[in-house]
Amino acid sequence: MYLWEFKTKPMNDFQLDFTETNTDTWKAQILKELKDDAAKIEFTDKIEEISLDITKTSEKDFNSEVINDSNNWNASAFIEVNDEKSANNLALKNLNQGCNELIFNLKSTEIDWTILLNDIEVEYIHTRLQFTNTAQLSSFLSSNYVAKIQYFSFEIDPLSCVFETLENEIKSLTSNRVVSINGFEIQQVGATTWQEIGVILSTGHELLNRGFLPNQLCLSIGIGSNYFLEIAKIRALRYLWGQITAAYGSKSSIEIVAHIGWSNKSLKDQHTNLLRQTTEAMSAAAGGSDSIVVHPYDQNSKDGSSDFSYRMAANISNLLKEESYFDKVHDPLKGSHIIENLTELISSKAWTYFLELDAFKSLNSADKILKIKSDISLKRTERVNLFNEKQIKLIGINLFNTTNPNPQDWKKDLSYLAIPYLIYEEIEVV
After folding, report:
1. Would 242 be classed as within a structural domain?
2. Cα torsion for 88, 90, 91, 94, to the nearest 10°?
3. What is the pLDDT of residues 326-352, one digit of tens each?
4. If DSSP codes are grouped into helix, strand and coil, which group holds residue 210?
5. Lesser CB count within 10 Å: N end or C end of the chain?
6. Nearest alpha-carbon partner for 372 in 392, 356, 388
7. Which CATH number is 244's domain given?
8. Which three-class secondary structure state does DSSP give residue 169?
């Protein structure tokens, strides 16, 4: 029989050595682990025109506005309204699956609001209405739901040609967000992070000049696949928009709605989409988005969305909140050197682009729209070239393709500002 004697220190004597390591020592260790491949220490994105030494310490702290003491967001369901009954059924199903916000994209000119909103307790959720013409707006403002207008936001696109016909009527609604600046589709057609922010800032600035209040505006953004860049993009947008509104003497809170779109999604190999949707939603959450819209990956297929894809889209926010606790810590990456440095780089380039667009002193003049289209088209072409060269690698699309592809096809009429959506799966590899 052996008697082992264990000697331990009292718990209150327990200490860890957190001696600060200087930058040179830290960098040397990283190089050692990279097997002296120094090139990997430099993060470079050709399309974004960004280069960063990942060991560089950040000199600026981009404090984000504290709206609440957590990082919670609205889990939103996007629903196209072609007929009110079907849209209502889909809305109720999404609410039962965990969503607490609805976006109705109104396709019909005449809307029966009683059918569309039947059994939806609008007082307990938030509802966004995407109007495209005055008839839709007038019908809502004359409906019984106008008495509950505080539970609604309007998402009217100021770069749309119909905006001037809606402008005067919505400007008087000073207690509601009535305009959504559409950075999401700017991103979907191939823009860089800083181009997307620049267009948003320029559009928002012109709206303020036209008499809109900051709290009447919502900023819509698209989330791409570069995890850290997308986090930094959201933080940069929040910071820069705060600079603009401060110049107008306003401390109104910003509202950012992040959309998970389709550029890198596959209809042929659909299971790969869940991984991409999840990491993109993680970027949106970590960056501090107020609402996250995970669009069903097949929403823009010719067959439309399946119940399965809607359910999976809703589950992503559910899992990030209930099992991964992404909603518990406000601005979780604050102080991260890489994130703070990327935020500064994107902010600088976005502000420069904003000043270029702001020189037009116009909301959507032909010359300004032409410049935006030309600038984005150049970046879109770069992305297509890199995809053809296999420098952009997407499993299930141009890498490790499935042997039993699904037969679905994409819609052919997807575009914004007359630029087709960038859907990598639709590119014919040369």
Report:
1. yes
2. 160
3. 999 888 888 888 999 999 999 999 999
4. coil
5. N
6. 356
7. 3.20.20.240
8. helix
